[in-house]
Amino acid sequence: MAAPWPPCRRLPHWTVCILAAGYALVQVHDCLSRFLAEPVSSHRDTVFMDQLPTPAITLCNPILDGPTVYYIVPEDDNMGMSDLPWHEFGNETIPYLLDVAAVGAEEALDDCRLRGQPCSTVGAWSRRLHSSVGDCFTFTPNTSEPIQLGDGYEVTFLLPSNVYGEIKEKQIMHALIGEKFIDLTHELGNMRLSVFVHPADEPFSSLPWIQPQEPLYVRSGERAEVRVTLEDIERVSQRHLPCESRPGYSSARCSLLCHAEAASAATGLDCRVTDMPTTAALCGNFANYSAVQRAFTTAAGAQAAMGECRQRCPRPCRQRRYLAALGSSLGQDETRLRQFSMRIYYGGEPVQLYRELWSYGASALVGEAGGVLGLMLGLSVLSVFEAVSQLVESIVQRVSARVGSA
Ligand SMILES: *[C@@H]1O[C@H](CO)[C@@H](O)[C@H](O)[C@H]1NC(C)=O
Ligand SMILES: *[C@@H]1O[C@H](CO)[C@@H](O)[C@H](O)[C@H]1NC(C)=O
Ligand SMILES: *[C@@H]1O[C@H](CO)[C@@H](O)[C@H](O)[C@H]1NC(C)=O
User: Fold this and answer.
1) Coarse DSSP helix, strand, coil percentages of the chain, rounded to the nearest 5 percent
2) CB within 8 A of 6, min separation 6: which ones?
3) pLDDT digit string, tens, across residues 112-146
4) In angstroms, rounded to a whole number, what is the distance separating the alpha carbons of residues 125 and 100?
5) Are 32 and 339 in contact (CB under 8 A)?
6) 299-354 pLDDT, tens digit each
7) Nearest ligand, measured from the Cα of 96
8) Domains of the chain: which residue ranges?
């Protein structure tokens, strides 16, 4: 028999040994459960970089948002979206609406420069009608060239007079629909353009459960300064809150697809609304269009899929996010109410770093549990090694003794 552990030879010693072992077990269990809870601490840092990634921008003209579309119909300005010429145009009805009732990017955004170069030479505009924010133009730079502090976009969004008719005293804007001008509900003086600044490699969505971001509003006739800050986020993947580290992964893209699938499943319709950047054909009649739109763009409609889509589309482990804030505005110029001018650039402290780190990792666990065992039971790596080698030795001795006596 191997000798009992030296301090535990007599009864009082045994008592102390058992108490110490019990206490050590409780402590080790506590360490282990803290480790398994995967606690995380976040660290925040502001860093200065003079080479910064070029963001994409989206400018949304609210003239065609949900409530306004209600008024935009040929012939009768008291008819709703249901009265658009669906019969005549089928799934081309919404593209038709965009053609007749609003300006395209070429006319509205002719005056745009990125890094001093005309936007049309360093990227492309795309257009999409978003039910909650209106008629949106997204500029995606096609260069990977960084920009510098204080540098960025100079954009003027123009409402051309051939589409947006004369401004009357009441300043109610008129829009040319087909052959005639009709009144729109917006007063031009209060008209705002929504501005979003976002990563160039992610699709844009204004739905907060897909891409939470607040727009900035630029008023007509204003010259606004929009200061951009980049958030560079690094997360750790916890069991209850995993993150996705695949390169090129975008949680917004994944969520758009997931919610689009859910809207199709919920309505049984294999067609899309303009908010969805998927490949299905646009819905071809009002009943189908509004059913899919309700399922996809309202929180109540999307509710059922939220849990599943959040699980299927975890947060990315490495993420870039832009924050934009309205800096000074040079006031409203009453003679330029058809213009929304803005400069979008990186301001003073351009990059905020967020790092998540394990606050109780494997080495902290080994350190603390080992400390407790050492203190309570006098265990160390050496004594454990010694005990094991003694055991092995005694086994070897016995076996060889038997072999010898046989
Ligand atoms: C970027 O896109 C524009 C317009 O699509 C094109 O004219 C230009 O050559 C492109 N530049 C690069 C570097 O790809
Ligand atoms: C939409 O609705 C009509 C009938 O209301 C139906 O015939 C059509 O197949 C539906 N689906 C799509 C994808 O438009
Ligand atoms: C309309 O439907 C046709 C046939 O399904 C399709 O080829 C076309 O791309 C659709 N157009 C739009 C704008 O979805």
Assistant:
1) 35, 30, 30
2) none
3) 999 999 999 999 999 888 888 888 999 999 877 88
4) 19
5) no
6) 888 998 999 999 999 999 999 999 999 887 667 777 777 889 999 998 877 888 99
7) 3
8) 45-237+318-358
Predicted TM-score of the model (pTM): 0.80
State pLDDT tens for residues 174-214: 555 555 555 555 555 667 889 999 999 899 998 999 988 88
How far does the centroid of ligand 1 lie from the alpha carbon of residue 126, in Å? 14
Ligand sitting nearest the alpha carbon of 271: 2
Atom of ligand 2 nearest to the CA of 280: 13
Question: CA torsion angle for 113, 115, 119, 122 (degrees, to 10)?
Answer: 170
CB atoms < 10 A from the CB of 126, how many?
Answer: 15
- Return d(Cα 233, Cα 357) in angstroms, integer: 12
Q: Which of 269, 278, 286 to mutate to test the pocket of ligand 2 (most atoms within 8 A of CB)?
A: 269
DSSP state of 314: P
CATH fold label, 45-237+318-358: Acid-sensing ion channels like fold (2.60.470)
